[in-house]
């Protein structure tokens, strides 16, 4: 299975699991553009999606989840999401590429960030 097919499958699974979130959780988080803390299944799907882009993105799983949630705020706020993803997800051992930043944002927009 190629990377794009894997990412699409992961995004579909994550979208399905997010459908179970309560509307009050969504309403509280929507104002800031930050989705609620994912439950264990949502978390697992999100981490798989990030790993499919590049395993370095989830060197610290808790930090990767926090980065993903905060990146949603940038995406919904209209900032330079690609530049922010490069900065937010880069680590001393791995700098995120332009392509990875775009892939991160596509995956988060499609399957994780609130609309």
The whole-angstrom Rg is 13 Å
Order of helices and strands: HHHHHH
Please, how many domains? 1
Helix share, percent:
55-70%
What class do helices, strands and sheet pairing give? Answer: mainly alpha
Low-confidence residue ranges: 18-26
Number of helices: 6
Biggest β-sheet, characterized?
A: none
Number of strands: 0
Task: Give the strand content.
Answer: under 5%
- What gross morphology would you assign? globular
Mean pLDDT: 82
Query: First CA to last CA: what distance?
Result: 29 Å
Explain what the structure shows.
With 115 residues, the protein is mostly helical. The protein has one domain. The chain is 68% helix and 0% strand. The protein is globular and about 35 Å long.
Which secondary structure elements does this structure contain, and how are they paired or packed?
Layout: H1 3-18, H2 23-30, H3 40-53, H4 61-77, H5 81-89, H6 98-111
Helix pairs in contact: 1-3, 1-6, 4-5, 5-6
